[in-house]
Write a structure and sequence with these properties.
Chain B: This is 2-hydroxyglutaryl-CoA dehydratase. The complex is a heterodimer of chains A (398) and B (442). Chain A has 398 residues and is an alpha/beta fold. Chain A has 15 helices and eight strands. Chain A is globular, with a radius of gyration of 20 Å. Chain B folds into two domains: 18-211, no CATH class; 215-441, Rossmann fold. Chain B contains 20 helices and eight strands.
């Protein structure tokens, strides 16, 4: 999408800023390597979905959430099977090819069976550095879970201190929490503008903003966002959009390919909102900046699943389908596209519940199964066009 | 090797395991009448919590075991079709979509008993009594935990529901090893604490006091039965082996979920006695044992008999396996009958899919040495990432130790993923490699 102001001239500032973020999002490992050269400090590769980046930051290292690579999966096929999700396979592949050697350690907290398989593969492929699992219980209902999460966070803090030589003190954690809260708030402003229709921003660009926040030094990201937010508001002023408004849901742990977004938007659709991991899900919940920081990070883990419930968690007191309905309606979306990574077990388990809820509310929707390679974009486009056409005719698409 | 791969099967299966089949059938028949008898029924998944339910006086239905039973008896179709109709994609864990399909059928049956007029082959899939409560205790697999979140939703979020969480035995600390190290001990204490909370939940839900003496009694029998099973497995170090992995597969259900009582002990005593007799009389499981193999992964329940015959036809005795030899109360010395919760917690953590790949590889190599194994058959289980995790690393470790390996493609409960021709080709290639290695060693 080209940014134009009311007079029709390209807003060079927005383009430049988004370019910087997009570059980090598209080449995260190169960004990490540059950062390490520049700072002389350590970088920790962290895995989705609930990692408290603040902890690594407070220990003086760069936390960088490892992204799916667009590279073809080859070497990793000798570590995990082809019937694992794209992210797990790409992770194993990047490890097998030495791409993750830029990191001084890999840390994970999440319990997803495929992710743990990939993490074990990394431990085999990268033998000379710590591959630390601080497993947070995925069941959120039991009192024991909170105690366990608090213990795992404390253990990680100790392990990170040993890795970096800097213990994440309470003061440092408070600073890190404030920084990440600030960054999340800035990104939420962009999403608010998109939802309100006051900023024209493509799904590809929105994802680049969030994805780059997963990868970059938080202070650097904030500096860019503080310029981008006002520039976006100005650039998009008065820009009309007659497109059908649509909600994107799913992809609990990694980024959908941006070409999928481009294809969807090429069908006369504007993305009003999302609950993607590389979207609202990642930035929706702040960490309490008061009180004990480790307690606050513990609370954050549980609060996240209330704000935007995730199918990878088990919590009987929240319901992802209900939250999705509320978000769709709040965003004024006329339909939803569910993006389900092939072989994603939690999403496959929850999809029928989501389908039931959407059908009950008469919200048209489309399920698109995504993969690392071989996405049949033209065929998918036909399906999206059919959805849009039916919506325009006021007929439910199913 | 030029012999045809599929010739008439000469396997000499144990006869004592038939008694286990009868016990299991009686168990399920009893469960099917639970509603008429006014019993309280718990549906649970994962670890063998049944001694706790037994002591609580409630009847238990191990949902994945029922899925396995449907698949093993080729009755899984209606449940899986119902799952598909409900919206489950085919790549989802076939255990989960089979039993969730059963849940949908059970729900419909409870709401409208007239629907029993459905086709005969649907009857078994819809016969589970609707649960009064749900307990989940799935180690090693996030899907296992999440699937009961869905069971809970299928039953309108109205049932009491408790979850036990397990950490994967990962090994961050340098002192960590199999059943060793502070990380292991801490994990065991963490799970034992949750078991105490589960008992409090059951007391609250049923309004009855938990009978600790009954738990001790159940664990007394289970400990003996577990030891008898392990002793019997050890006897298969004999060459030729007196029993095979396929005989042990037939013993999974009894040790996994039958009540802890004298019947269970008698069953495993009978199995052990038969094997001892075979060893004494030199009766082999296969008339021509030429190769000794290990089987890694979860069972392919649709093809148990088929696979048993296929390997036997190739004079390949599958002697041991992860699913049979490193699970199901397989470390009975850990159980303190007087204070059983910690030992139970340890066994639940020792689920064969709850280890890191390095430990899995070490356990595999240890069993290969113990049973003098020539090659390992890895069941690449399409919809079970839990059983598939680490297999490729295990294979590399086994190869490094000089053991031949092969993979075949199948699934735990969905027959459509099984690829017979691939198994034939790869088995033939592996057996030839074993022959070549043997000749080179002469």
């Amino acid at each position: 999408m080209i940014f134009e102001n009311a007079a029709g001239s390209v807003d060079a500032t927005v383009v430049r800023l988004l370019g910087t973020l997009s570059e980090a999002a598209a080449a995260p490992l190169e960004y990490v390597a540059r950062w390490k050269r520049r700072t002389g400090r350590k970088a920790v590769g962290v895995l989705p979905m609930n990692f408290p980046l603040e902890l690594v930051h407070a220990a003086g290292a760069l936390p960088s959430l490892v992204q799916e690579s667009s590279e073809a999966i080859t070497d990793g096929r000798s570590l995990i099977y082809e019937f694992y999700c794209a992210y797990s396979r790409s992770l194993a592949d990047q490890g097998a090819k030495g791409r993750l050697d830029v990191f001084d350690a890999i840390y994970a907290v999440d319990h997803c069976v495929a992710l743990l398989g990939a993490l074990d593969a990394l431990r085999f492929a990268i033998e000379d550095r710590p591959i630390h699992l601080a497993q947070f219980p995925a069941s959120m209902d039991e009192p024991a879970s909170r105690v366990a999460v608090r213990e795992r966070i404390a253990e990680m803090a100790a392990a990170l201190a040993a890795l970096t030589g800097t213990a994440p003190s309470a003061a440092a954690l408070a600073d890190s929490i404030a920084l990440y809260n600030r960054d999340r708030a800035l990104m939420r402003k962009v999403m608010d503008m998109r939802r309100a229709g006051t900023a024209r921003i493509s799904a590809r660009q929105m994802q680049a903003i969030v994805q780059s926040a997963m990868v970059m030094d938080v202070a650097e990201h904030i500096a860019i966002m503080e310029q981008l937010v006002p520039a976006l508001a100005q650039a998009a002023a008065g820009a009309p959009s007659g497109a059908v408004r649509l909600f994107l849901s799913g992809h609990y742990c990694h980024a959908p390919r941006p070409e999928v977004f481009d294809m969807i938007e090429s069908c006369g659709v504007s993305i009003a909102d999302d609950d993607l991991f590389t979207g609202y899900r990642f930035i929706a919940t702040d960490v309490d900046a008061t009180g004990d920081p480790l307690d606050a990070l513990t609370d954050w883990y549980f609060n996240r699943n209330v704000t935007v419930p995730c199918g990878t968690r088990a919590q009987k007191t929240v319901d992802g389908a209900d939250t999705l309905l509320t978000a769709i309606e709040a965003s004024g979306s006329q339909a939803a596209i569910i993006l389900l990574p092939k072989f994603c077990e939690p999403h496959m388990l929850y999809f029928p519940e989501i389908r039931k809820a959407l059908l009950a509310r008469d919200i048209p929707f489309l399920l698109i199964e995504t993969e690392h390679e071989g996405l049949a974009l033209e065929m998918l486009k036909t399906r999206v066009e059919a959805l849009v056409e039916t919506m325009k005719r006021g007929v439910a698409a199913h | 090797m030029n012999q045809p791969l599929q010739t008439p099967a000469p396997a000499n299966r144990l006869t004592s395991t038939r008694a286990g089949g009868k016990l299991v059938k009686d168990y399920w028949d009893n469960i099917f009448t639970a509603r008429e008898r006014g019993a309280t029924v718990v549906w649970y998944n994962g670890a063998a919590l049944n001694p706790i339910f037994q002591a609580m006086g409630i009847e238990w239905c191990h949902a994945e075991a029922f899925g396995a039973r449907l698949a093993a008896t080729h009755m899984e179709g209606p449940a899986q079709a119902m799952g598909e109709e409900y919206g489950y994609l085919r790549e989802l864990c076939s255990y989960a979509r089979t039993t969730l399909g059963c849940a949908v059928l059970t729900r419909r049956e409870a709401e409208n008993p007239a629907s029993t007029a459905v086709a005969d082959d649907m009857v078994l899939a819809s016969r589970l009594p609707a649960p009064d409560l749900i307990v989940n205790a799935y180690a090693g697999c996030s899907t296992g935990q999440q699937w009961d979140e869905i069971s809970y939703r299928i039953f309108d979020k109205s049932l009491p529901f408790f979850k036990v969480s397990y950490p994967l035995l990962w090994g961050n600390q340098p002192d960590f090893d199999y059943i060793k190290g502070e990380e292991w001990e801490a994990a065991a204490r963490y799970v034992a604490d949750q078991l105490r909370q589960l008992i409090a939940f059951l007391e609250h839900t049923t309004g009855r006091a938990f009978d600790w003496e009954k738990l001790r009694e159940a664990m007394h029998y289970i400990k003996i039965a577990g030891q008898l099973r392990m002793d019997a497995l050890d006897l298969c170090k004999a060459q030729p082996t007196p029993a095979t992995f396929w005989d042990w597969v037939a013993c999974i259900a009894p040790i996994n979920f039958l009540p802890g009582n004298q019947d269970l002990v008698d069953f495993f005593a009978g199995v052990k006695t038969e094997i001892e007799q075979r060893v004494a009389e030199g009766i082999p499981a296969l008339p021509r044992e030429r190769y000794r193999l290990a089987f890694d992964g979860i069972m392919n329940w649709n093809k148990v008999g088929w696979l048993a015959n296929k390997f036997a036809a190739n004079d390949a005795a599958v002697v041991c396996g992860r699913y049979t030899h490193t699970s199901f109360w397989h470390e009975p010395h850990l159980i303190d009958v007087e204070d059983p919760l910690l030992g139970m917690a340890k066994h639940y953590l020792l689920c064969p899919f709850n280890h890191n790949a390095k430990v899995l590889g070490q356990l595999l190599i240890k069993d290969c040495e113990k049973y003098n194994i020539d090659g390992v058959v890895f069941h690449s289980t399409r919809t079970c990432r839990s059983a598939s995790n680490g297999q490729m690393i295990m294979a590399k470790m086994a190869q490094k130790a000089g053991i031949q390996t092969m993979f075949f493609e199948g699934d735990v409960a969905d027959a459509s993923f099984y690829k017979d021709a691939i198994l034939d080709t790869r088995l033939e290639a592996m057996l030839e490699s074993i022959d070549v290695k043997a000749m080179a060693g002469r």
